[in-house]
Amino acid sequence: MLAERAALIESAIDRLLPPVSGGEARLLDAMRYATLGGGKRFRGFLSTEVAALFGAAGEGALRVAASVEMLHAYSLVHDDLPAMDDDDLRRGQPSTHKKFDEATAILAGDALQTEAFAILADPATHPDPEARIALVAALADASGAPGMVGGQMIDMQGEGRALALPEVERLHALKTGRLIRYAAEAGAILGRASPADRDAIAQYGRDLGAAFQVADDVLDATETAEQLGKTAGKDAEAGKSTFVALLGIDGARAEAERLATRATGFLEGFGAGASGLRALARYVVERRN
Amino acid sequence: MLAERAALIESAIDRLLPPVSGGEARLLDAMRYATLGGGKRFRGFLSTEVAALFGAAGEGALRVAASVEMLHAYSLVHDDLPAMDDDDLRRGQPSTHKKFDEATAILAGDALQTEAFAILADPATHPDPEARIALVAALADASGAPGMVGGQMIDMQGEGRALALPEVERLHALKTGRLIRYAAEAGAILGRASPADRDAIAQYGRDLGAAFQVADDVLDATETAEQLGKTAGKDAEAGKSTFVALLGIDGARAEAERLATRATGFLEGFGAGASGLRALARYVVERRN
């Protein structure tokens, strides 16, 4: 299910990115390199699945999915830079600044962020400008200083000093949680869900994102680089406080389970249409990469 | 006139940026450092002046002005990075990565871009979602791969090799011209100008932006670093093709004049209300920093 949807989202990204041409061809090439060629498309899946729940499957949902994947890709390109996490490997391939160079990677990340907003603003995403501007506002809120980028700043500053559990929870709620919650909410916005339904989906997304990150820490501590397709054990090595360091491996596994179960609880009113979202919560705690 | 408006825009930026607090305080501090404390606010002035021409002076115009200045500031922060133009000085002060560090500068630029879109998406900018989404679409178009960032990529690749005049013109039309044109168009969007009026303003903005860049090359070749508040002669030193290298100083001055005059020509239908925009075109070619 995940693989089939990933292929659809991949193809939407391919269609939506500008073709490689002109004096800026290297930039466009790097944008494609950073976004295409794999990935689970977890965030995009989430958007399309919630959109379908509210009767909004189709081109608009694929565009929203492509947009959130571009935003996510931009964050990975910048996070991998030497001045940031200094990671040479991403999905088993050279990270963008290794494949190209630092300047190109910085610019490709910048332009991917812009492109994510450009896609949402286009009438092809939703005929109603009110829905499009709500998507733009929600993405900006999730990804900027009060969200993802704020979380990345806290993460950079946390290197080499011990953070307490509430600090680590807030860090990840911002750094990865907000964008995952947005991916869920975006589907509800696209489907013009009622405020109560949108709120339930937002809470599901928040807990799903938290479960995702705790499970990620467990994977980082237990799986090999080959399995993960990225450098393993990096966070511990960089002296970052992880959920595994704070809770132990068994404790972190139990916490991921608790969060995934709580996430599913918010889906109770949605019946059989939400079975894909329930399966996603299971997948998040059971995945191996 | 420029100084008075600049103070209003400065105060709008100050109000609109998030307050410095939390674990991400360093990020918020760097965002403020990069955007506040001076600058001519040329792009913001242009937006407010066009908005006023179409009867849309006020809070919305100041928000649009603050937004375009944040977008511009993000581009400067990233352009100054060691992997890009490697500039230690900006407006006579340490550039953001010198004042803070590279990671913080990358993140501050990222978050300033996001904030520029967040401000446009907010109902306080314009009550009509159609106007707000048009602003978002226009800013994304002007600042991403088909605009500013694409131009910066061409600029990086042009170092050390000779570009012909049409290539240099396209480079700058993208790198600086598109955002200046947007700043003008944004005022017209805010004032719900007719398509014909918006088009005239866009053409004025395009030529004004071109004149601005040619005049900038002349300043870079003729003024001291002290006068400019930034490193002088850097482009020539980096082996970049400039208008001065291609046209000579007198030729470049004449070209800037020609472009400014052509820009003003597009204002003919607007009468006395456009006197500020005419003065701005004069200012662009007569300024000393």
Structural features:
homodimer, 289 residues, mainly alpha, Farnesyl Diphosphate Synthase, two-stranded antiparallel sheet, 71% helix, 1% strand, globular, magnesium (chains A, B), Polyprenyl_synt (chains A, B), metal-binding (chains A, B)
Provide structural commentary.
The structure is a homodimer of 289-residue chains. Chain A is an all-alpha fold and 289 residues long. Chain A has a single domain, classed as Farnesyl Diphosphate Synthase (Orthogonal Bundle), CATH 1.10.600. Chain A is 71% helix and 1% strand. The first copy, chain A, contains 14 helices and 2 strands. A two-stranded antiparallel ribbon of chain A has the order 1-2. In chain A, a hairpin with a 2-residue loop joins strand 1 (89-90) and strand 2 (93-94). The longest helix of chain A is centred in the last third of the chain and has 28 residues, at 195-222. The first copy, chain A, is globular. The interface between A and B is large, with 54 and 54 residues.
